[in-house]
Amino acid sequence: MYFHNKKVIPWLAISSFIYMLGCAPLQIKEGIFSPPYKNYTITIPETEKGWEPIRVDKEDIALWHKQHKAMIAAISSDIENKKLSLEMLNRHLFLGMTNKKIISKESVLVDNESALHIIVEGEMDNCKLKINSYVIKVGDKVYDLVSWASSDSFDYVQGDFENMVRSFQYTKD
Question: What are the tens digits of pLDDT across the range 109-165?
Fold first, then answer.
């Protein structure tokens, strides 16, 4: 079920301290990430730009930028209730965050699929953060593309994240 697979916010607490490398090998070929049985591809930022693929939990892929202490994650899940709105699906990304302030919120298309794009400021474990998220719902699947960094570093990494979002391609069965 969708809500049990969401583990984004707990990463915020550990993202500056602990990183676990490698569980299962990541499927990256020529900069394109294509997780098996997940029905999408994305182009990930280059390691030359400071991004390192890592595995933390149940995400499809997470990327860590050591210099800017920032993360990008792509998470896909099946949803049982197709009637859940993008707004309801997006709210779960920010559980545990305090002093939340929505900077921007808009409906957009990502690969011609409806998506909700939200940028939020808030605090987690006494750290001020900004989170940039896209929630894309296609049938009984939801795809979360999420980036977060301290407020100081946020602007430095967002170009790489937005390029990744623009590269998202849903692949039909």
Answer: 999 999 999 999 998 888 889 999 999 988 888 899 999 999 889 999 999 999 999
What letter does residue 21 receive in the DSSP assignment?
A: -
Beta partners for 128?
A: 123
Contact 4, 95 (CB under 8 A): no
DSSP class of 6: -
Distance of CA 170 to the CA centre of its chain: 16
Please check whether residue 147 is in contact with residue 71, taking contact to mean a CB–CB distance below 8 angstroms: yes
Domains and CATH numbers, the chain: 2-170 (3.40.1000.10)
How does DSSP assign 84-124, residue by residue?
--HHHHHHGGGTT-EEEEEEEEEEEEETTEEEEEEEEEEEE
For 142, phi then psi, to 5°, come to -130, 140
- Residue 93 has which token pair? 């990304």
Classify residue 162 by burial, with Cβ atoms within 10 Å: 0-12, 13-18, 19+.
middle
Q: Which helix (H) or strand (E) holds 1?
A: none
Structure token pair of residue 20: 């676990």
| pTM of the shown model | 0.80
